Amino acid sequence: MFERRLQFLLICLGVVLFCLVARAVSVQVVGRSYWQEEAADAQQNQTLEPTVRGRILDCKGRELAVDLPCIDACVDYRAIKFDHTGDSDQRWLNNIARNRIKARLDNYADLPLAERKKLLSAEVKNVLLDIDQMWIDLATVSHQKPQDLSDLRRQIIAKVEARRQIVWSAKYGKAVLKQSAPQPWYVRWLGGGGDVDVEKFEVNVAEQTAAHVILPHISYELRNELAQQSDRYPGLVLQAGVMRSYPYGSAACQTIGRLSKVNAEDVKSDPNRDDPLLKYTANDDIGRDGLEAMLEDRLRGKRGVRVTDAAGHVISDTAPVPGEDVQVTLDIALQAEIEKAFNTVKFHAGGDVPDIDIPMPGAAVVIDVPTGEVRALVSAPTYDLNQIDDLLPKLLVDKFNRPLINRAISNAAQPGSTVKPIVGLGAITQGIMHADQTILCSGFLIIGKHKYTQSYRCWTERLSSPVGYHKSPWRDPHPNGYLTFADALERSCNVFHETLGDKLGVGGLSFWFDKFGLGRKTGIGLPGEVRGSLPDQMPGPKPRSMAWNSAIGEEDVTATPIQMANVAATIARGGIWMKPTLQPGETERVDLHLDPAAVEQAHIGMKNVVGRDAGTGNTAFMRDVLLAGKTGSAQTSPLVDIHRDPVTGKPLRDAHGRVKYDIVPLGTSENPNPEVPWYRGLVDSKTHEQTVNPAHAWMIGYAPADQPKLAFACFVEHGGSGGVASGSIVKGVVAAAVDQGYIRAVPNSGVLPPRPPYPSNPKVAFGE
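The structure assignment produced for this chain is given below.
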């Protein structure tokens, strides 16, 4: 009986032994390659290597934006993730504490175990306190709120966890794929295959022990300060990085644009969110506006990835791909010179008040006539792109100067008389009148048999009343008031163009404004561009008077400086519209098929605007360059200070839902408004008091007038007279173009020959 039981026990032991041997064979022989791969994968670390952003170059190869070496203040991930809930790396804390003790006590290793533990426990508490203090100090020296750094820490933790999830998913999927593949019968019989144990499938990534950027491109002063305190800041590392540098500082700042950290919306809308080497992650920079945003997909490179084994040997190394260098059409030297002109804008208050030169907000655009390439895109005031992190809080709340706005593309205002060339060209091309015909201006608009004496008067009627008939200026009066298209442009006659506007109607005006590119974006590609508005886009009824106002660029039509610069370029080309571009190469061209005789009249009139005594833009006259231009003074509302919620920044409203605001007081030459020193009143022609709200000042044109190379538009907010304020900017634009070699100055080339005699029997188009 005993022998039978012993035999049964031996059989059982034999079966168990056989199973163990079979399982060992399965793991070590049959599944050897699989487990070798799993062991190798488990010991691999992947490290993402940053890329370098591409350069932005101007048309002559000068660097507008470039990545340069710098020093970043980084913090070890274990200190970033540290909190007081116990979710910390205790081994890392112990190592820091132990190293601190060893630095103080040479005999630490010789102390009894109990005493070493006591010292270690006390020092760990000090390390925890120092980590807390480190975050407070980093916020202080970087002029940030502690909450800002807390938010950044959460973003980094989320990024690392997302990275772990990606690696986990890849390895888990690989393991499942291997396990689900068909196995030989003996592997299945010996226990091979089966499901992957999810709970035991754990991965780590290199980012969990790496230092992450907290304060990018710190100053050398701050670097030295942090280096001196490094022993007190657990996990702080000062390491080499790259920073975006703008060699020309404030020049073209709104057009070049700025970088900022990605936000949740950027990550959500990222087209590369499934590519770990291209997608945006926390602490990445993104082009927020300007060229940096427009060219983001070309400037932004691709990360590299390095895979190492447990011993640190490189298994694979994919180098990062730098961003592309992109050349644009801007000439930064030309741009910088024009920006300086906005520091000394001539302000004409009128009356006996002397003209003064003051800095004023505005915009200027310069377009190469043959190619449509934009050479300058100026918006004043400016700011230094290299200091944007420090300046941004102040710039965001600068409600009157609005330096972050690119006025050249984002500020649509009534263009005033600068649209008059479009009106005349459209009316003549459409056959409403002939190029050699005239319209009588008596100083008052006459429609049918009705004479408008209280409104719709020609601006010169006030100066020459009661005579009328464009007797002003006295040095160059018009003999009878029968104006050709060229005469009407030269003298900026409202009645002439209001009459044509009545004939064209709201629909006809909108048609021609659209032909010249108004009411729609130019397609230049910069974010933030607005389209402006056309009369027929206005809601509600379209009274007949809407056409009269729109024909002189008021009320129901708005345009941006870049649109008006392109209007000037289109006229300079004889009626060929081209899409303005910031990138070299072919661009869209459209022939507007304008009447050649009308184009010739426009050229004559616009040359006379600058070169004759009767011209409204003769303050821009330059003896050595022949200019063609058209001025405009567009009515505008008073400057207001909108009441805003201090938390959300949204406008506050009264019980009737109307936005609350205060009208900003006008300054004078003797007493400028200290908050808005450039906002000054004009002298009322009747009361002779300096209380009238100044209009926006415009001037468009091209040079040289006989062989146009550059077209331009200048806009001065609340500048008053277009001929004075914008005329002073135009002189700066042309002088800069001469300095940079775009235009050749020839002595006396800007002087027009004596005026031909006016016809004694003018051909009348309408009326008497």
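Interim note for the steering committee: The chain has 23 helices and 28 strands. Residues 146-180 form the longest helix (35 residues).
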